[in-house]
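Reviewers asked in the last cycle whether our approach scales beyond single polypeptides. To address this, we selected a multi-component target totalling 290 residues and predicted its structure end to end. The input consisted of the following lines:
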Amino acid sequence: MLYIRKKMIGEESLLIESAKKGDPKALNDIFAKEQRYIFNLMIQLTGDPAQADDLAQETFLVAYQNLNKFRLQSSLRTWLSKIAINLFRREYKRRPKHVSICLDEIKMPSEEDRPERIVIKKELQWCILHSLQQHVPKKYREVLILRDLQNLSYREISEILSWSMGKIKTCIHRGRKILRAHFINGKCKAFAEKDYLCICEGILEL
Amino acid sequence: MNCKEVKSLLSEFCDKELNQEKSEALKKHVVSCSECRNEYDSISKMRKVLKKLKTYDIPHDCLKRMKNAKKGKIPSVHKKSSNS
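The resulting structure, written as structure tokens, was:
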């Protein structure tokens, strides 16, 4: 496993070096495999596809402009994530938070109204993201997104946010507790009751 | 290991970021303590729910604009930034 990872990093380094020397194919290859990751990270951070679209583009623009400064001390994903988080933070300060739905405002339509149930199902999916964005303090939110939604290791998150491992551990733990409390207070039975079959037809069901 | 210590380490344990010695001590405690076991189940559940969130395909237009951004063209909405 470690060998495969080292090999991947080695290949990535070679591509980055070629891209720095102006090889357009290498540049395209290194960024192409991170596009989906960066776009989804931005959706999770902003909760707004249009804003995610803008910020994902800007992430690659900034990366392109600063590629020569990238010293390969971290993976490309870690470096791009750092740029993405900084751009998001700058944007977050500038724009007002948008209003979102909460769990306690959702009423599930009856079984006969299938199309409506599908819409609500999608809303519930968004509701998890909105709960993260609206009810979890920023300090914990970014860490939770990087860990639980993007599956990055504590070490990678520590590099992206420039935080100590101790702070990462504490924030992940506290963030999860806050989010869980919000779901329970919002009467999400999937969290409040063990083995409950959820109304959202699978999204929250385990 | 007491309950307070176990609860503070549960997230790390679920993420497999705890060293072997502490993991073993924590497992031993969780098996015999229902309160800590419930807390462990709850954190596990939370992780599973978040991991089940779907990821999105990149819209075609966005893909096109990202391609332009990679060539160093400034996207239409934002101005040039010096972040690195």
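The domain at 1-73 of chain B is CATH 1.10.10 (Arc Repressor Mutant, subunit A). We regard this as preliminary and will revisit it once experimental data from Aim 1 are available.
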